[in-house]
Design goal:
This protein is of the alpha/beta class. Helices cover 37% and strands 14% of the residues. It has helices at residues 15-27, 48-51, 62-72, 75-78, 105-108, 111-123, 133-139, 153-167, 178-185, 228-237; strands at 3-7, 11-13, 31-36, 44-45, 81-82, 93-96, 127-130, 213-216, 219-222.
Length: 239
């Protein structure tokens, strides 16, 4: 049995990007360990993704929401460990999920967590990162020499333009777009792979054809919640 580590902020992470890989690993018989900054208390996803960001749209799909409801009842989710006590040697794989609401800054901006992420990459063990989660890898300087994708500029900008009139900067976690910061962290421009251009097609548990991931040795990355199933399966295959 392998142990997957999933560090999270206290709130505002993406529902699908956490619940789907968790479900994939647990049904394969593996252990999933969650970690928050202080540990001990159950974290919570971005609540708008459970009900729909705007007019009931742009939220998580029904199946990932059902997985998240299962996750809320799981003992490992109710009692996460602390970031300060993390030891690379205790885990077999690492997942860096995303989310764009303000609470994600706790996770994306924590220098101690960046150091742990860098050490995990250096260990050669499998790492998965999706959407804004790729920023944690970029800020740890672990992506030098690696190929990666992340939340594309066109997706982030479109979501922001569609919702800014109602939600302000909800879709703009930072002044720089995710793709801009990730690209700046790479050794070569061609190491960034944007993937096909679309806004609505999502992969599912039984159909990965709309999904996209970039695989580079032990590292696998994805763009958005629509890639979560494919990312979870690719990370599982590396364990």
């Amino acid at each position: 049995m392998a142990r997957l580590l999933v560090p999270l902020p206290d709130t505002d992470f993406d529902t699908t990007e956490v619940a789907v890989p968790w479900k994939i690993f647990r049904r394969a018989g593996h252990e999933v360990v969650f970690a928050t900054e202080r540990g001990g208390a159950r974290p919570s996803c971005d609540p708008l993704l459970l009900t729909g960001v705007l007019f009931g749209q742009l939220g998580a799909e029904p199946e990932p929401v059902s997985f998240y409801r299962e996750l809320e009842a799981a003992s490992e989710f109710a009692a996460p460990v602390s970031w300060s006590g993390l030891d690379v040697g205790r885990f077999d794989a690492l997942l860096l999920p995303g989310g764009h609401a303000p609470g994600m800054k706790q996770f994306l901006g924590h220098e101690g967590l960046h150091r742990f992420v860098a050490d995990f990459f250096a260990s050669g063990k499998p790492v998965g990162a999706i959407c804004h989660g790729v920023l944690a890898a970029a800020r740890s300087r672990a992506l030098r020499g690696r190929r990666t994708t992340c939340l594309p500029f066109y997706m982030e900008r479109t979501a922001y333009f569609l919702t800014a009139w109602k939600l302000g900067r909800y879709y703009r976690t930072y002044d720089a777009y995710v793709e801009e910061e990730v690209r700046a962290s790479l050794e070569k421009p061609e190491h960034f792979v944007r993937g096909p251009t679309h806004l609505m097609k999502r992969g599912t548990d039984t159909d990965d054809s709309p999904a996209f991931v970039v695989e580079d040795g032990a590292y696998v990355s994805a763009r958005w919640p629509g890639d979560a199933y494919k990312l979870g399966k690719a990370l599982l295959a590396r364990v």
